Amino acid sequence: MKAFPVGELKTKFSNILELVQNGEEVEILYGKNKKPVAKIVPLYSKKSGKRKLGILKGKSKITFAKNFKMTEDELLNLK
């Protein structure tokens, strides 16, 4: 993970956003001691093209059909 102080973040914002779009997490450092205060993370990985689990938490609902049945062994053997 890369880290940038606020001043450098301001001047290189477009470049830093490119890093984030490519899956990199970036910390923002603030103050005289340059302590980490925030993190910029990608919404989804460009490599997989899929969103991370949890991004829709509270915004969606999952239901299973009444006839849906799967044993624990069937679940563990899925590839």
TrEMBL record:
InterPro entries listed in its UniProt record: YefM-like_sf (IPR036165)
Xref: SUPFAM superfamilies: YefM-like
Entry superkingdom: Bacteria
Similarity field: Belongs to the phD/YefM antitoxin family.
Protein's name in the database: Prevent-host-death protein
UniProt source species: Leptospira bandrabouensis
